[in-house]
Amino acid sequence: EIESGLIVRVPGEQVILPQYYRDKVERHWDRLIKSGKTFFNGPIYTIIRETSSETGIALEMAKTDYAHFLYTLHTPLRSKHDCRVIYTSSLVVTQDGKYVIGIMGRDTFAPGKLQLIGGGLDESDIHNELADLDHSVKKELKEELGIDADDRTTVKDIRQKHLKAGGAHGFMSVIYKVSLILTSSQVLERFERHCASMRSEGQEPEIKTLVFVNTTIKAVRMFTARNKHEKDENLIPVMMADASV
Fold first, then answer.
1. How far, in Å, CA of 185 to CA of 48, rounded?
2. How many Å apart are CA 147 and CA 207, to the nearest integer?
3. From CA 103, how far away is CA 114, in angstroms rounded?
4. I need a labelling partner for 204 at 20 to 30 A (CA). Which of 49, 105, 140, 152 fits?
5. Angle at 44 between CA 130 and CA 168, to 5 degrees
6. CA 48 → CA 58, 59, 90, 221, distances in Å?
7. Strand, coil or helix: 28
8. Reported confidence tier of residue 157, pLDDT bands at 50, 70, 90
9. Closest by Cα among 108, 115, 91 to 167
10. From its phi and psi, is residue 226 left (phi > 0), alpha (psi between -120 and 50) or beta?
């Protein structure tokens, strides 16, 4: 649970990687592109300093690129030069008591993977050298589900719920709980319209389809046992922490 403050500073610093490490990143990127991937090597923010105190956690971020992030993600050996991202995600709950889970699309960094709705920070989330995490999570809800988090006829409540750190790559995640006024069928209908609109504009949605899971511990356990897709490391623990008996 998030019990203290979290401040994410982005002063505009650029990461400078050692040449040997940068060479590895570029060779990995070249292999991905030659294999047919259509990734764009845009800006990514990585954690370069982390300070904890009684009042909370302060992070300082610097700009790197998507190639650096993918190299970190795909390489099992850890290095102090790895890209450590912080991202926002949403435990979305429908009015009829179902969690909304996305299955990642073919051209994403994790095709077929199940995860909460969310994503990393980008330049639109940075204001006066501070990361606006609320802006980030609302942006992802709009981009991935077609849901406007500020529309009170759609979203009943949205709030920070968990801060997750560690895992295989040392990434950090700020997890929100988003309670909708929409039913699961209404969410699916809105999602499908949103995806159709994106494709009509020549864009491919990051989420290819949605999965709905009842918000009970029994249902989450059954889903965990039966669904064989790769799952984001936060997905099951977050649902289990929220689910009812």
1. 42
2. 14
3. 5
4. 152
5. 105
6. 11, 8, 25, 37
7. helix
8. very high
9. 115
10. alpha
